[in-house]
Amino acid sequence: MAEFLLAYGTSLGMDVMARIPKLTTTLAYDRYMAGQKLVSSVDRPWRHLVLRSYLEPAAQELLEAPGLQDLTLMTLASGAEHLERNLHGRWESADLRVGDLWFVPPAPISWRWCSISDEPLSTVHLHIERSLIDSVADQMEHGGSSELSLGDAMQFHDPLIAAMLGALHRAAGDPADARLYVDTLVHALAAHLLQHYSRGRHAPGRLPAQPERLVPRRIRRVTDYIHASLAADLSIDELARHAGLSSFHFARVFRRETGETPHQFVTRLRLEEAARLLRASDQTVLQIALAVGFESASHFSVQFKRGYGLTPLAYRLRG
Asked: Which of 64, 196, 289, 295 could form a disulfide with 300 if both were Cys (CB 3.0 to 4.6 A apart)?
């Protein structure tokens, strides 16, 4: 099969490549995909990233795609495949299974593949804005370098990245997962990529040069702000600014001081305030959901049941 694929379409591929742009946007990239879209974060209010997953055809003779300026990682969510890629006029191949990762360089690429498993073949595509990589690199003091040494990696293994992609994939399909949770994940993923795959000089990440005794005061400032702003659309960047810390360091310091991630802390406070309003007011579930910062009644109901074991209406009736 590999020899057949290698022989088929080489000249055809060069002709097609001449007709597609060298670079395209992450939103436009979807039009070049061959599979049936399963999940997309495009309509979610997420910052700095787009995630999509596809049910892929069991065999694809030739697929041509332009390059992307955004950092793009892919992995298999199910199945296994023999994947071949033509980059800069050279074909290479790899047998990929669930958990394997591959990097998509910012250049036009020819793809072809065939399934080597009885399981359905599905892929997860994660696009991260280059501006976020640059910002996290500055905060980590990487000597100003945000170049990654993933290079032309056709296949690599990193269980932490695979787990983060899995978590983001689940979040994209679950309306109950909040943006603050996704914000935390993508910042952590950017930091991990820079720490382990940066071409630049690796400077150890460290807190800004400030007395350690000031940190609890800064975190208290943030928790006070959260208490007063539960209805607001909170983000890691905004909370970090209130602490006077970089967003890269903020999540780690916050967890050390409070025992919770920012997402866990905000969600707990929102649910506690919602429970109080359910007991003490006659506001509707939707009014309460919006008052404590949930984007919809359904999102609120799912989160409330996770935290309290009851739907909001059942909680109110019981109380």
From this structure: 289
Is 265 part of any domain? no
Is residue 119 domain-shared with residue 240, that is, in the same domain? no
In 9-116, which ranges are continuous DSSP H helix?
A: 10-17, 26-29
Query: What does the pLDDT read at residue 188?
Result: 92
The total of structural domains in the chain comes to 3
Apex CA 198: angle with CA 195 and CA 199, to 5°?
A: 150
Tell me, what DSSP letter sits at residue 198?
Answer: B
pLDDT, residue 204, reads: 37
Distance between CA atoms of 283 and 52, rounded to whole angstroms? 37
How do beta strands 80-87 and 59-65 pair?
unpaired
Query: What tens digit of pLDDT does each residue of 185-218 get?
Result: 999 999 999 888 876 544 333 333 444 456 788 8
The single-letter DSSP state of residue 121 is: P
Residues 222 and 88 in one domain: no
Strands 67-68 and 90-97: unpaired
Assess whether 239 and 279 both reside in one domain. Answer: no
Asked if residue 33 is part of any domain, the answer here is: yes
Q: Do 310 and 191 fall into the same domain?
A: no
Q: How many helices (H) and strands (E) does the chain have?
A: 13, 11
Look up the domain containing 174 and give its range: 2-195
- 23 with 155, same domain: the answer is yes
User: Side chain identity at 90, as an amino acid letter?
Assistant: R
C-alpha distances out from residue 270 to 115, 116, 232, Å = 46, 47, 11
3-state secondary structure of 309: coil
For residue 89, the one-letter residue type is G
What does the pLDDT look like over 34-89, one tens digit per residue?
999 999 999 888 889 999 999 999 999 999 999 888 999 999 999 999 999 998 88
Q: What is the pTM of this model?
A: 0.70
